[in-house]
Design a protein that fits this description.
eight-stranded mixed beta sheet, Aminopeptidase, Glucose Oxidase, domain 1, 25% strand, homodimer, binds zinc ion, 12 helices, 16 strands, alpha/beta
């Protein structure tokens, strides 16, 4: 059993990891970063002045921390603005519905679209509806999201948000309503992007809060038609400028080998983006502060990246990857491993990774170093987080998942209720302990983690 | 100890009370009434077509139950309509605020009122501000409501809602914002009526959700001015027709002696009024069904009253009292005792009453009969509920309080989130058991409860 303690790291290196954890747990200051961002900047939709204020805020923080190569890397994103939105049941019992437009939804006419509801349990059921059967109707996909600690209910439910509008349009629908992709029972609708197919007309699309979806079901259960009016004033804003913001601690031995610790700086417009992803920003900055204060830098470079425009389709991460994949050959950079904190305010409960086989013992050793924080091995490999995907694909980069406890995450995700009061400073400190000690150990690894052979994601 | 069991009621009468309780606990159907009202009628602001739909709904239910003297008693109420409402911090960090107009608030100009925030801990602090010191400003009273099981935090906080606008206007304020009178930390503002003093200009008044009030405090803590724009499109609708709806079980011996079991039928416009006061309506109707099904009616008449326009200032209850107090002398009616269910969906946890001294032993006996439901004596006398007040004053009527557990009530009270999913059918059944067995025993009492001598309320 003691042999399991013998591993790839020297005792002094593991002692630094424990020191990092203890300092984070004693008070990492991550909450203060989340507070500052959500108060001084507030909501920060990609492409807006508030997003630019976020870039300035992040630059100032990185510089205060004394990081190297602090910079803003601009890119272009297709902007979108929500505008006023409302919905109401007109008959049989007039009442307001709480809705919010899906990201990139087209507007309705100024006086809305009005139609009878055609309800489907799932997107698959809508796909089975006869062609033309939704003419003049508002389709309603009522898929309920399951509450799972690891967010495992999201994938099943979110297909209706992405593909639903175009599939409903193919059947002739005037508009699409979906039950919110969310686990709460409060009257907050959950937004999130949709993607129109180019081969069919774009129809307005919005999410109903869970209590409103329940109420719509009760009215449908009365047996007669239920007529709803939906009014959205959203508009496409054309190409806008946005940016990733980053800084780094240069490696003392292998400065061209990069360990990526990421979060995303943009948020939806409805809340202040405290959980999504202010918490991740706080974790990254607090981890950077502890790592920067160590007596000596790690072997490899740790790059702290705050991506832009994640919510609008990983636009910043894709731009980051595109700028470097097969790019100017002057750079010798090799992205070794990356992880992103983008699942709320913690604590971290699982750890897993997708690395080349030679690095498995290192990952196992990191797992042992994380276990005092209550972290256990996660199942299967990890994608590392949404913005990590484009980097992993472009660079063959290894990925590590520090799995945050998401039991309540989808109660608030993409709603107006994603505000600072939902963030627990102590849980955030534990997450900083995990991310920072992971970063240290990954950057100190005696072997590299990449390249990872993958079937294309 | 056994002597305590000897009391004013015959064993057979107490056995009926137990039978009533057991039937209610086995499934009273109260939830189905709440569901039907909140789905088929929905929100039902006094004076609106929806309120009239509510009257029709209630008439139909009373008739189905086979009650006697089922009737609608019309009265006039000053109508008010909310309209669109919005607020935003303009500087130092632009962001939306979730607000809702206080009931009877005047509108702002179409482009809103804009001013720097002048914050006060309490209304008393605002009263201490120098005259004219709020010129050009938006006053903000930030009083936090305490979470108490009996709702004891409401009174302290609600003064800012009632008196705040006129007091702020006296100091020159453009508008008043208050922290919501509510115990949740979700972005739902809590509405409720305000009352303008006739001697000062009426200024627009709205409530901020608790997270928005917190955020405003954080921005104020930065030290600079915080500029807010408030836009309300509310309007006075003039005198409108509304009504109380009632039915009764005529007493077999003392039909002119009335026991009142009440709730209010109207609701605010934001939610569906499931807890406030759909739950009370469900309790009253389910209690009526059980009581109507007994082998013989009780000695006294039990009158089930669903008051209108409670939310706009007990307008229905005042009309009911005014129509009877010193009214047409043809009536020999004597209102003996009354209680109202208007504090959510239960369970009932306390029982107390304000009766003439001769009836104290009867109240004690009723308390013993309620104790198997987990109900203990409440402290002090009880007002009986908001709509009971005008009747108690007008008739010298005794009042009984069946105190509902309000721990969570002010999480939802007067918000859009007051919807059916917040109602627990089992707790509602327990409440029906309490109200129905109380009604039976009160109507069977060997002695009358009134008149009660009171200093004017
Ligand atoms: Zn995110
Ligand atoms: Zn997101
Ligand atoms: Zn009420
Ligand atoms: Zn109320």
């Amino acid at each position: 059993v003691r042999a399991a303690d013998a591993g790839p790291y020297a005792p002094a290196t593991l002692a630094v990891a424990r020191e990092i954890q203890e300092r984070a747990l004693a008070g990492s200051g991550a909450f203060d970063f989340v507070e500052s961002l959500t108060v001084r900047v507030g909501p920060r939709m990609a492409g807006t002045p508030a997003a630019r204020a976020g870039h300035d805020w992040a630059m100032a923080r990185f510089k205060e921390l004394g990081l190297a190569n602090v910079r803003v890397e601009p890119f272009t994103v297709e902007g979108w603005e929500r505008g006023l939105e409302s919905a109401a049941i007109l008959s049989p019992a007039p009442q307001h519905l709480h809705v919010t437009a899906l990201g990139y939804s087209v507007a309705t006419p100024a006086d809305g679209v009005t139609g009878a509801i055609a309800r489907f349990d799932t997107l698959d059921d809508l796909l089975s509806a006869p062609d033309g059967s939704l003419e003049g109707k508002i389709a309603f996909v009522d898929k309920k999201m399951a509450r799972l600690q690891d967010g495992g209910g999201y994938g099943q439910a979110v297909v209706a948000r992405g593909r639903g509008p175009s599939e409903a349009a193919r059947k002739g629908a005037l508009a699409l309503l979906i039950r919110s992709i969310g686990t709460d029972s409060h009257r907050f609708p959950h937004t999130g992007t949709t993607r129109y197919s180019p081969d069919v007309a774009a129809i307005p699309a919005a999410a109903l809060s869970n209590p409103d979806a329940d109420q719509l079901n009760r009215l449908l259960a009365l047996g007669g038609p239920v007529t709803v009016r939906l009014t959205l004033a959203s508009q496409a804003m054309g190409p806008l400028s946005d940016a990733n913001v980053m800084g780094e601690i240069r490696g003392r031995e292998l400065p061209e080998e990069i360990v990526v610790i990421a979060a995303h700086l943009d948020s939806w417009d409805l809340g202040t983006g405290a959980l999504d992803d202010g918490a991740g920003v706080g974790i990254v900055l607090a981890a950077a502060r502890i790592l920067k204060s160590l007596p000596q830098p790690p072997r490899r470079t740790i790059r702290f990246i705050l991506f832009g425009a994640e919510e609008l389709g990983l636009v910043g991460a894709r731009a980051y990857a595109a700028a470097r994949a097969g790019g100017p050959s002057g750079s010798k950079e090799r992205h070794q491993i990356g992880t992103e904190a983008d699942f709320g305010a913690g604590p971290v409960i699982t750890f897993n990774a997708d690395v080349r086989p030679e690095a498995r013992p290192v990952i196992d050793a990191i797992g042992r170093a994380l276990s005092p924080l209550g972290i256990v091995p996660g199942r299967g490999p990890s994608s590392g987080g949404p913005d990590i995907g484009p980097l992993a694909t472009a660079f063959g980069m290894a990925t590590a998942g520090l799995g945050l406890d998401g039991t309540d995450y989808f109660d608030y995700h993409h709603t107006a209720d994603d505000t600072l009061d939902k963030v627990d400073p102590r849980k955030l400190d534990q997450s900083v302990a995990a991310f920072a000690s992971f970063a240290w150990l990954a950057a100190e690894s005696p072997v590299g983690f990449s390249p990872v052979e993958r079937t294309r994601e």
